[in-house]
Design goal:
The chain has helices at about 1-25, 60, 65-70, 75-80, 100-105, 120-130, 170-180, 210-215; strands at about 30-35, 40-45, 50, 85-90, 110-115, 140, 155-160, 180-195, 205, 220-230, 235-240. By secondary structure, it is of the alpha/beta class. Strands 4, 5, 6, 7, 8, 9, 10 and 11 form an eight-stranded mixed sheet that branches. A three-stranded antiparallel sheet has the order 1-2-3, with no helix packed on it. It is globular and about 45 Å long.
């Protein structure tokens, strides 16, 4: 009887929490559902259709040899200005292409939280980290579509490379990432430029600076910092936690 009562109380608390969370969302940040396009999921946020998620089967594309030259990923890592001892996160880490590069910069006492929602990706990622000798620095995190499951107020920088546009719940995920950042911490979006039709990427997998700014504007804990336009195909859009 006591166990049933406890379970009922837990269920009630979860219902109340969900109700408060829904009320807390600004009206303009509601999701809409319409017919899905070929590369979208039929769910819209601020007029943008959310793109289909890349599965772990696409790991080879993430690790393609020409990626550094095409996207100048080496330049991106330099732009982050990572320092030894920092705690950083690679959200949507995939195969860990950026995770080990970040780990080299924050070593020996820093941490890289590699967040994925697919266990298959995390298994592949940690195999790559062991080969690179940074498995002790990179911490695998199995997140959910609504929660990155990062430690509260512990992270100096969160990097999202070509992944935010695939979030099923961008509002909830952004709120979770803000919660994880230290005051002054950076939230860094790297997205293929929707403003440039010459960028050879499907439209649903591109984002404009204006769209990213619009979606972040509903989070008062964030302030826009800068746009870095030195990469050949992507822009780097930086926000800071107030």
């Amino acid at each position: 009887m006591l166990t049933r009562l406890r379970l009922s109380l837990v269920a009630l608390l979860l219902t109340v929490h969900a109700s408060f969370a829904a009320e807390d969302r600004p009206a303009e940040a509601r999701y809409q559902t319409r017919a899905a396009s070929r590369d979208g999921i039929g769910k819209f946020y601020f007029g943008r259709e959310i793109a289909q998620v890349m599965g772990h089967q696409g790991a080879d594309w993430l690790e393609r040899p020409e990626r550094e030259e095409e996207e100048r990923t080496d330049v991106l890592v330099e732009l982050l200005q990572l320092q030894p001892g920092q705690a950083v996160a690679d959200v949507g880490a995939g195969s860990g292409y950026f995770s080990w590069r970040m780990a080299k910069r924050v070593a020996p006492n820093g941490s890289v939280y590699a967040v994925e929602i697919q266990q298959e990706f995390l298994d592949l990622l940690m195999g790559n980290m062991r080969q690179r000798g940074v498995a002790g620095i990179v911490k695998p995190v199995l997140g959910t579509v609504q929660d990155p499951r990062l430690p509260a107020s512990q992270v100096d920088l969160i990097l999202l490379v070509d992944v935010y546009h695939e979030f099923d719940y961008p509002y909830e995920m952004t709120r979770g990432m803000i919660h994880a950042l230290r005051p002054g911490g950076r939230l860094v979006f790297v997205e293929y430029r929707a403003e440039d039709p010459a960028v050879p990427i499907k439209p649903r997998h591109k984002m404009s600076v204006a769209q990213v700014k619009k979606e972040m504007a509903v989070h008062p804990a964030l302030r826009f910092d800068q746009v870095i336009a030195t990469l050949p195909r992507q822009h780097v859009i930086v926000f800071r936690k107030n």
